[in-house]
Amino acid sequence: SRAQSAHDFVKSTVNGVLETVAAAPLPVTAGSPQALDLARTHIGPHLDVERTARLVLGTHWRRASKEDRARFVSAFRARLLRQFADAIAQLAEFRIELLPREFPTDSPRKVVKTRAVPVDDSAVGSVDINFIVRRRDGAWKLMDYAVSGVSAVSTYRAEFGPQLKQGGVAALLTGMEAGAPGGPPKVGNAGAADRF
């Protein structure tokens, strides 16, 4: 059978989330256990957290101990899932359009372009969301995404940079494991105070 394309992977994943949100007996709200459970179920299995963690930490990954790497991956996974849970809670306000494919067919890394379009005449405009995926062990995995051109990996690098410079991965972990807020821009508003 034909291998699933990156475009089809993103489409099926997004549609799975949308269908579950639409069928939910109660509205899915940001910060709710329901939203987090949806993120764990529909997004969690498709995250390449270690690959994304390596990209975020850069040279600090190589300097970190094996134990600190494992701790960071665990804390970073929790952070990513919280961010996706909040994004899922916003989906009732948008429809997701997949844009035409523009990536070379022979590259293991693909960029799948989508657009979140408000379902009503709200003041919020359409938002471009690009999903950067990579085939690993025969399956597509999400390694980064960009909202209105702002990469999640770049945002996390900027956020974590001062702590890494001051105290390395160990210092960063102290804040992350304490549940410090933060993250990339969110779908609704592209303002710096918002999170996706």
Descriptive account of the structure:
By secondary structure, the chain is α+β, with helices and mostly antiparallel strands. The protein is built from 6 helices and 5 strands; from the N terminus they run αααααβββββα. It is globular, with a radius of gyration of 17 Å. The protein starts with 5 loop residues before the first helix and ends in a 19-residue tail after the last helix. The relative contact order is 0.16. Residues 188-196 have low confidence and may be disordered.
Reading the helices and strands in chain order gives HHHHHEEEEEH
What's the number of extended β-strand segments?
A: 5
* Widest sheet: strand ordering: 1-2-3-4-5
Number of separate helices: 6
Mean pLDDT: 85
Regions with little confidence, pLDDT below 50 for 5+ residues:
188-196
Radius of gyration: 17 Å
Largest sheet: 5 strands, antiparallel
Q: Structural class of the secondary structure composition?
A: alpha+beta
Q: How far from one another are the termini?
A: 36 Å
Question: How much helical structure, as a percent, in the residues?
Answer: 40-55%
- Dominant shape: globular
Proportion of beta-strand residues = 15-25%
